[in-house]
Give the backbone structure.
Amino acid sequence: MHTAQDLIVCEHCDSVYRRRTLARGEVADCAVCGAVLDRHQWVSIDGQFALIVTAFIVFVIANVSPIVTLGLSGMSAATTLWGAVIAMWNDGAQIVAFLSAMTLFFFPLSQILIFGWVLWFARSGRRAPWFAQAMTALVSVKPWSMIEVFMLGTLVAVVKAHTYFDVVPGAGIWAFGVLTLLITVFSSLDPRELWTLTREDKA
Ligand SMILES: [Zn+2]
C-alpha cells in the first residue's frame, strides 16, 4: 500500500507519479506537461537550519552596526540602517523610509523566522504548528525581501558621496553583504520538499 508521501502530484496538470529518490543534480520533470516535480536538495535539513541560524545572527549584526561613516572636515557621523530610515522619514521621504524598513527589515526577518520555525520541527521529521500557513507565507514573502537591491543602491550612494565626504564603509555593510549571500542560498532551496520529509503530528 502506498501512502500520500510516496506519491507526487504535478502542480500544473495534476498527473500523479510515484516518488523516487533523486541523485545529486537530478531533476524530475512531469512527462505530460514538463513542469518540475522535484529536484535533488543539496543541503540537508540540519544544514538548512544551520544556515538560517547563521543568517539570523548576521541579520542582527547588520541591523545594529553602522552602515557607513561619513566624515567632513574633521567631523564624522556613523549611521545604522535604522538611523538612515529615521533620517529619511524626518526628511519628508516617508514612502522611501517605509519601503526600506519593509524590504530590508520586516520581510527578510519574517523569511528567516518562518523558515527557521518550520525547519526546527522538520529536523525531527515533524510538521510545525501552522505548517501550511507558514509554507504559504514563505512563498509570498520571498519576492519582497530585497536586500540585494539595497546593496546596489548603497554601493552607488557610497561611490557618489565619496566626492564630498570621506566615506568609510561600516561593519553593517559587510554584514548586509554576507546576508545577501545567505539569503540567495536559502532562496534557492525548495521548501516544498518539507511536505514530503515531515509528517503530521498525531498528538
Ligand atoms: Zn504536469
Notes: The chain has two domains: 1-40, 42-197. Residues 42-197 form one domain. The chain has a mean pLDDT of 81. Residues 10, 12-13, 15, 30, 32-33, 35 surround zinc ion (CB under 6 Å).
